[in-house]
């Protein structure tokens, strides 16, 4: 994103940017109290953008979107919603080191690594998932879910469709949740293509119960290069999670 071009476009296009209506400035109107859950127009634009960068292969319902102060806040909020202190989430290695702080610091949630190796290009396997789950059990940690970053930070790789199907099968068998952090979904420049967990769900025969246990995190920080704007989002089909995340 080029800020020179952005600032120039905003200055020359005040009405599409939302700062003018019928030739009149609406800055004062925007500066007053708004819907605490986000401007409906912005949420509509957000889900349209999320769909567009996924090639319009899936659609998103703005009613199932919760806006947050960045992806960090979104991930932490989901930890509060889905787990109690002392419970665990499984994360494939290597993972973003900031997760050790973001997911655990205030929530009390434990991270248990899913050990992936360079021998198979760090792909997630059934045996690695089960080994991590059993490791948590031995530590008397109740596993509440799996969190993946797709595309990966720090690897820059994307999860394959078989891996995503494997994750859905795993969370179904264990009756746990899956968080797919997709903040780099619009920043893929070569094959293999990025596949969203939403695409796999749409193409599968999984029940509504499984849909309700899959949650997507997104933000504008990476794809648009706007980390200072602190715009993140949680997308979930679970009404209980949505209600809790808004409080």
Written description of the protein model:
It is an enzyme of class 4 (lyase). Pathway: Alkene biosynthesis; ethylene biosynthesis via S-adenosyl-L-methionine; ethylene from S-adenosyl-L-methionine: step 1/2. The protein is α/β, with parallel strands linked by helices and 247 residues long. The protein has eleven helices and nine strands. The protein has helices spanning 3-12, 14-17, 27-31, 40-52, 70-82, 99-102, 126-138, 161-174, 197-203, 208-211, 239-245; strands at residues 20-21, 24-25, 65-68, 88-92, 110-114, 143-149, 177-181, 214-219, 232-236. It has a seven-stranded mixed β-sheet, sandwiched between helices. Strands 1-2 form a two-stranded antiparallel sheet. Helix 8 (161-174) links the parallel strand 6 (143-149) and strand 7.
Topology (elements, then pairings):
Blueprint: H1 3-12, H2 14-17, E1 20-21, E2 24-25, H3 27-31, H4 40-52, E3 65-68, H5 70-82, E4 88-92, H6 99-102, E5 110-114, H7 126-138, E6 143-149, H8 161-174, E7 177-181, H9 197-203, H10 208-211, E8 214-219, E9 232-236, H11 239-245
Parallel strand pairs: 4-5, 4-6, 6-7, 7-8
Antiparallel strand pairs: 1-2, 3-9, 8-9
């Amino acid at each position: 994103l080029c800020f020179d071009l952005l600032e120039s476009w905003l200055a020359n296009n005040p009405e599409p940017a939302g700062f003018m209506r019928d030739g009149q400035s609406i800055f004062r109107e925007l500066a007053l109290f708004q819907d605490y859950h986000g401007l409906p127009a912005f949420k509509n634009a957000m889900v349209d953008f999320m769909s567009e960068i996924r090639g319009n292969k899936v659609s998103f319902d703005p009613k199932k979107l919760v806006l947050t102060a960045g992806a960090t806040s979104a991930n932490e909020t989901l930890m509060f919603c889905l787990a109690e202190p002392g419970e665990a989430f499984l994360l494939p290695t290597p993972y973003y080191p900031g997760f050790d702080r973001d997911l655990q610091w205030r929530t009390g949630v434990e991270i248990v690594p899913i050990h992936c190796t360079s021998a198979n290009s760090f792909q997630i396997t059934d045996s690695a998932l089960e080994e991590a789950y059993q490791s948590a059990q031995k530590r008397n940690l109740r596993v509440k879910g799996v969190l993946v970053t797709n595309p990966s930070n720090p690897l820059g790789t994307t999860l394959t469709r078989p891996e995503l199907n494997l994750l859905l099968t795993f969370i179904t068998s264990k009756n746990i949740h899956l968080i797919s952090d997709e903040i780099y979904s619009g920043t893929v420049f070569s094959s293999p293509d990025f596949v969203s967990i939403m695409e796999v769900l749409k193409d599968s025969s999984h029940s509504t119960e499984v849909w309700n246990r899959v949650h997507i995190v997104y933000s504008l920080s990476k794809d648009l290069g706007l980390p200072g704007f602190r715009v993140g989002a949680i997308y979930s089909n679970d009404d209980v999670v949505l209600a809790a995340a808004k409080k």
